[in-house]
Amino acid sequence: MTQSVPSLYERLGGHAGITRITRDLLRNHLANPLVSARYARSEDLARVERRAVEFFCAGSGGPETYSGQDMLATHKGMNISEQEFVAVLDDAMAALETNGIDAPTRTEVLGILWSLKGEVVRV
Ligand code: HEM
Question: What UniProt keywords are attached to this protein's entry (predicted)?
Answer without folding.
Answer: Heme, Iron, Metal-binding, Transport
